[in-house]
Automatic annotation (TrEMBL), chains A, B:
<keyword id="KW-0862">Zinc</keyword>
<keyword id="KW-0119">Carbohydrate metabolism</keyword>
<dbReference type="InterPro" id="IPR000600">
    <property type="entry name" value="ROK"/>
</dbReference>
<dbReference type="GO" id="GO:0005524">
    <property type="term" value="F:ATP binding"/>
</dbReference>
<dbReference type="InterPro" id="IPR051804">
    <property type="entry name" value="Carb_Metab_Reg_Kinase/Isom"/>
</dbReference>
<keyword id="KW-0808">Transferase</keyword>
<dbReference type="GO" id="GO:0008865">
    <property type="term" value="F:fructokinase activity"/>
</dbReference>
<keyword id="KW-0418">Kinase</keyword>
<dbReference type="InterPro" id="IPR049874">
    <property type="entry name" value="ROK_cs"/>
</dbReference>
<keyword id="KW-0460">Magnesium</keyword>
<protein>
    <recommendedName>
        <fullName>Fructokinase</fullName>
        <ecNumber>2.7.1.4</ecNumber>
    </recommendedName>
</protein>
<comment type="similarity">
    <text>Belongs to the ROK (NagC/XylR) family.</text>
</comment>
<dbReference type="InterPro" id="IPR043129">
    <property type="entry name" value="ATPase_NBD"/>
</dbReference>
<dbReference type="GO" id="GO:0046872">
    <property type="term" value="F:metal ion binding"/>
</dbReference>
<keyword id="KW-0067">ATP-binding</keyword>
<keyword id="KW-0547">Nucleotide-binding</keyword>
<dbReference type="Pfam" id="PF00480">
    <property type="entry name" value="ROK"/>
</dbReference>
Amino acid sequence: MKLYGSIEAGGTKFVCAVGNDKLEIIDIIQFPTTKPKETLEMTVNYFERFKDNLQSVSVASFGPIDMVRGSKTYGYITSTPKLFWDNTNIIGFLKDRIPVIYYFTTDVNASAFGEMVVRKDVDSLVYYTIGTGIGGGVIQSGHEIGGVGHGELGHIYVAKHPADYDFDGVCPFHGACLEGLAAGPSLEARTGIKGELIPENHPVWDIQAFYIAQAVMQATLSFRPQIIVLGGGVMKQSHMLKRVKSEFIKLLNGYVSIPPIDDYIVLPAVDNNGSATVGNFWLAKRKLTTD
Amino acid sequence: MKLYGSIEAGGTKFVCAVGNDKLEIIDIIQFPTTKPKETLEMTVNYFERFKDNLQSVSVASFGPIDMVRGSKTYGYITSTPKLFWDNTNIIGFLKDRIPVIYYFTTDVNASAFGEMVVRKDVDSLVYYTIGTGIGGGVIQSGHEIGGVGHGELGHIYVAKHPADYDFDGVCPFHGACLEGLAAGPSLEARTGIKGELIPENHPVWDIQAFYIAQAVMQATLSFRPQIIVLGGGVMKQSHMLKRVKSEFIKLLNGYVSIPPIDDYIVLPAVDNNGSATVGNFWLAKRKLTTD
């Protein structure tokens, strides 16, 4: 049986999985992200069990990463502020120990691919995760966007909500960028209440929906995708999707034509944050035939 | 001699030109944009003189346009507010009368291609025009960005400058979007003085540079281009480029690595708004071999 590997290299945990030709999960494991050597060693140990059938592996990593083919540091996590992980040759380490074909992309790109492959007739899609931070993955014609590197859609500046002028935002780099104003920690910074405990009728949700709607607006006008998927912890608030749609319609004001709103702004089709795993299986499989 | 045609279909004027294999202008003409039949008839008459040598034509049009291959209205100017031009089959009209191969794109995309081809080793570029309006063209790996249509980078929302909170912006669709806050007409709306007559030491220039720097920031984080070209009337103010660079460096705050700033944010390399003509010749020529 042919198997494909998925590695979600996150800042707090690694999720490793193997899947079959139908992109179904055969086995999955997770462990905390500690130091590079230790964590990558555990990764290698996991995949060694499957190495007779393993065809290829896709790695979806926290960033910034170098995913430019032909670059000297291709396959590296580069200038991350995460302790110990700066300048880590993740693909080099893995390939040395498990010599199969590798694909390397960002965590959000893999999620975007996962969401693409479970939907019919979609080859142009934007995926946002809105949780502790905000990130975005963009696919056009079945391939990632990116010139000299990957996008950082979470750090774009946005217009302030009139009721939010006094809030400086919590992004350590930019203060009041999208992530600084709309990721999970901004909720607690404004209200003193943990995000998941804030009641549904609190005015802060409208403020946050206004910012997320601007992310959707920017994705719409920059990439003209067929569909925009909103994932991450903040979107698990059952009332958020409706608020974001409503704010987005006001902001766009009919300027470009979009599909019916309920088909256009959607939650992930893959449950339990599993989009990246499916995406990785698909990318690993595709890489076999295109390399 | 092989000739290639360029049509810049602008909202106020059409510029038609023929170029040779080296993308040099052999002949060029311009006339006002009136009604579709009249203006397109003048266009056809112009190119008929060259039809024995004309290989292909690229049309760079004001929008919105339908440039999605295979679409029912491919080659149309679609829902433009410009009187008479709504739903005009521009490529259909031209192809019927001058039956050569056509390429169809936006005015800003053609300018982006023109700026790409006159530079060495660039295949990922963003071109903004900042004038009466604001538009952007994006090239990645030598091809346009765009899922179900072309981008509208001028209508993205931006963070307000603290000294500009009371200004509502002049975009008829969005008020205080980028175009509403930073295109030429916003200068007169704020100051009561025509843009080109505002003295260099007027504080409004810093406000405008702050917004243009946000456009550069958005392009950087969304597309990660090798270079960003700023064209259009507003950038003809000799002091603007320096202001924009300075604001951009503050806004980006080192978050992603970019080339040296003077190589990264630049004015057009083609003089006299000629980028689109060069781009069209190149696109027309490329279309011959890829169609």
